[in-house]
Amino acid sequence: MDLGQINPVLLAASLMVAATPILLAAIGEMVVEKAGVLNLGVEGMMITGAVVGFAVAVNSGSPAAGFVAAALAGAGLALLFGLITQVLKSNQVATGLGLTLFGLGLSSLIGKPYEGIKAPSLGKLDIPLLSDIPVLGPVLFRHDPMVYLSLLIVLGVWAGLKYTRAGLVLRAVGENHTAAHALGYKVIRVRLAAILFGGASAGMGGAYLSLVRVPTWVEGMTAGAGWIALAIVVFASWRAGRILLGAYLFGGVSVLQLNLQAAGVAIPVEYLSMSPYLVTILVLVIISLRGNHGAPGSLGRVFHASS
Length: 307
What we know:
This protein is about 70% helix and about 0% strand.
């Protein structure tokens, strides 16, 4: 065992990369749940975004095109979920689980021809002057554009929900859809817009895995990342700032366990591999014991215009 070979600077820089796909999926799901909709299909949207983004990037040679295609693919699956649950009034939990199974199967079908192919690389965005700062430069200012885009999305969601009329309407729909409808707000439209945003964010999160984090296509490569994103929303008590904290916490644990494996720590690999998920479960248990979750009042409830 040689812990001296673990570089703290590289560890911290890797943390941001590891957290980005979870952060994108979680912030999208938070917006969906803020609108009063529970979409358990995040895993399915992520894996679909991963395979579609990878396929488009390989065929076009453009990672940027891959991310756009992944966002559209995730939004497409989300729209399917939205129509079934909001228009046809299907049960949200059952439909979300079905969406995950559908996404996993669809990705396996689409991805078969792309196994073993390397994705075109997404170049890093070295910020002038700032990237040369000792320690902070490599940690904060030498990442690919998607890392910074994810942070901008979190900032935009926080500001939008807190300071804009659209954010106020979305929160009103999520807290009490009957009262929002009585005030004249289009509950179904607001929820569909939130669902589309959540799907696009999850799709980009999946594409980040296949185009940056790995970067290749492997069947089932999300490996539960969508479920972790759902857990982080609860951990964050539906607050954008805490979403960032939760995603980076999970990313940090994931990177740390990989580094500990490389350092030859005398702990079975299986225990190290399961540690990120154990930490997530532990955090959720602690939060449930506290009791004050802050969940939107209409979360998961079916809206009927006549009610």
